[in-house]
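User: I'm putting together a small comparison set for a docking exercise, and I want a reference complex before I start. The sequence is below, and the ligand is PBG. Could you produce the 3D structure with the ligand included, as C-alpha cells?
Assistant: Of course. I'll restate your input first, then give the C-alpha cells for the complex.
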Amino acid sequence: MADISIDPIVQRPRRLRRTPAIRRMVAETRLDPADLVLPMFAVEGLTEPREIATMPGVWQHTKESLQKAVHDAADAGVGAVMLFGTPLERDPIGSQAWNPHGILANAVRWAVEAEPELPVIADVCLDEFTDHGHCGVLAPDGTVDNDATLPLYAKMSVVLADAGAAMLGPSGMMDGQIAVIRKALDDAGHTDIVLMAYSAKYASGFFGPFREAVDSQLKGDRRAYQQDPANAIESLREIELDLEQGADFVMVKPAMAYLDVLAAARAISNVPVAAYVVSGEYSMIEFAARAGALDRKRCIMEALTSVKRAGASTIVTYWATEVATWLNEVRS
Ligand code: PBG
C-alpha cells in the first residue's frame, strides 16, 4: 500500500470551493423564481387581512389583500399562485366547494383579474368546506366514502376551471380522482387544464399549522386515505396511477421529510415533479429563527435548494415571493 503521508495530494475537491465566484460557477442546483409557487388563503366574509398565528408572515386574505399579494408574486417572477378558500357556511358534503360564486371560485377570479398572465392553481378538495373537516363525504359508518366523493370533485373542478383556473391541484387522495376530474373537464370543454396531482401525499403531522389557516373542523386524522409515512414504494404506485389517469404534474408532500420519495418520483416520472414545503416545515424555520436558533435566510435557501436538488422542478412554498425577491437581488 502506498504511503499516503508522503504522496502529493492530487485530488483536492476544495479547489472548487475556494471563492464565491468558483462556487457559483460549479453549483449543481440553482433556484429560479419561476420554480416557486405561492399558496394563498382566501377567507369568505373577512374584512381585514389576518396574520395566521401558527404561520407568522402568512395571511388570510380579503379580495384586496389577495390581489395585492398576487401582484407582488408576479412582480417577483414567481411561477404560479395556488389558492385555498375558506367558506362561511359548511355542511356535510362541502357544497360551497362547487358554488360558482363561492369563496374559492371568487378567489380564482380575483387572482386572474389581478394578473391575467400568471397561472392560477386552485386546490380541489372538500376539507375546507365540510363541517367534519374530512377531504370527502362520509359513509354511514363515518369513514370517508371514496366513490361518493369523486363526482363532487368533478363538479368542483369544472366550476374552478370555469372561473379561470389554469391548473387544478387535486389534494384529497381519493382513488381514481385524476381520471374522474380529467373526464369531467374534457366533457365540459376544458381540455387544456393542467392537473397537478398530489400523488404522494402523506398523513403528516407537519400539516398542523395549515389547520388554523383554513379553520379546519377536523377531529381525528386522515390516515385512512393519506399515505403512511413509513412507505416509499407505495408512492411509486400512486404516481404511476396518476400518470395513467392523465396527470400533467405529480407532487410529493410534505417535502423536506420526504426527499427520498422525491428523488424516486423524479426517477420514474416523465412529467414535472413538484414538492410542497408544507406549513409545519415553514413554521419550524420561522419559529426557530425568531428564537435566535437559526439564520432565517440561510436556512430557507438551504431548505429550498435541498428540495430542488432531490428532484423537484417546482416548489410550493409560503416563502415564494420573498425568495424570488432575494434571487432577483443576487442577479441585478
Ligand atoms: C387538504 C390540504 C392540506 C394541506 C394542503 N391541502 C391539509 C391536509 O391534508 O390535512 C396542507 C398544506 C400545508 O400544511 O401547508 N386540502
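Residues 123, 125, 127, 135, 171, 207, 210, 222, 278-279 surround PBG (CB under 6 Å). Residues 29-331 form a domain with the TIM Barrel fold (CATH 3.20.20.70).
User: Thanks, that's exactly what I needed.
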